[in-house]
Amino acid sequence: DHHVNYGSSSGLQDRVTFVHKDPSQYDASIRLADLQVSDTGTYQCRVKKNTVAVHEVIVTVQEKPATPQCWTEGEPNEGSSILLRCYSR
């Protein structure tokens, strides 16, 4: 029907678009912009012609890691060794 049903997640309305302007040209792919953890769920593509074909995809959005904390251990002198450490949650 050339439209996207957003279900109960109204936050998707401004972030979901068809990849191609006319999905009837055999590509009804959608693009989700600005992914959020709350976008995790089951997405369904339903195509109606003579019959109905349905395909479901499970999307899991993970949180992006926090900015890493980095530091050195040891003295940065010629001929000596230092250790570079980074940590992220």
TrEMBL record:
Listed SUPFAM superfamilies: Immunoglobulin
Residue ranges of the TM segments: none
Pfam families: V-set
Domain Immunoglobulin V-set: 11-52
Annotated InterPro entries: Ig-like_dom_sf, Ig-like_fold, Ig_V-set, V-set/Ig_domain
Official protein name in the record: VSIG8 protein
Organism of this sequence: Scopus umbretta (Hammerkop)
Organism phylogeny: Eukaryota, Metazoa, Chordata, Craniata, Vertebrata
Gene that specifies this protein: Vsig8
